[in-house]
């Protein structure tokens, strides 16, 4: 229904504006004044993506953009995206993309 579409749009906008700083479902649930469980339930109505998937996918999309089009090293990109632990960021990127950040850059540059 229309209300749900509006809710999804609002969630997506919040992620777009805050993904560098906020990485967890509970952060966004708080912004929307609902519980993380309620947020997950409402987002799940639209398909298989969870709020966590949506957040992480946005972060990884930006990471790929930076790897492809900037000279920042992986550690700098991790910090830029709000991760204090570059090793954690590396694992997250590899898990979502099925390729390590440095490897992604190498393949992209080879093109």
Give a quick precis of the structure.
With 111 residues, the chain is mainly α. The chain is 73% helix and 0% strand.
Between the first and last Cα atoms, what is the distance in angstroms? 43 Å
**Main β-sheet description:** none
Q: Uncertain regions: pLDDT < 50 for 5+ in a row?
A: none
Order of helices and strands: HHHHHHH
Helix content: over 70%
Would you report the number of β strands?
0
Q: What is the overall silhouette?
A: elongated
Indicate the structural class.
mainly alpha
Mean pLDDT: 95
Question: What is the secondary structure topology, with strand pairs?
Answer:
Layout: H1 2-18, H2 25-31, H3 36-44, H4 51-69, H5 74-80, H6 86-97, H7 101-110
Helix pairs in contact: 2-3, 4-6, 4-7, 5-6
List keywords for this structure.
elongated
How would you characterize the overall build of this protein?
The chain is mostly helical. It is built from 7 helices and no strands. Helix 2 crosses helix 3, helix 4 packs across helix 6 and helix 5 (74-80) packs across helix 6 (86-97). It starts with a helix and ends with a helix.
């Amino acid at each position: 229904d229309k209300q749900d579409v509006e809710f999804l749009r609002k969630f997506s906008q919040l992620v777009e504006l805050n993904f560098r700083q906020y990485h967890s479902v509970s952060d966004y649930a708080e912004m929307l004044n609902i519980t993380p469980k309620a947020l997950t339930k409402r987002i799940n109505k639209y398909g298989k993506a969870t709020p966590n998937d949506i957040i992480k996918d946005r972060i990884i999309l930006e990471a790929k953009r930076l790897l492809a089009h900037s000279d920042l090293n992986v550690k700098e990109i991790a910090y830029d995206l709000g991760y204090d632990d570059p090793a954690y960021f590396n694992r997250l990127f590899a898990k979502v993309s099925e390729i390590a950040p440095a490897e992604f850059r190498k393949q992209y540059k080879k093109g």
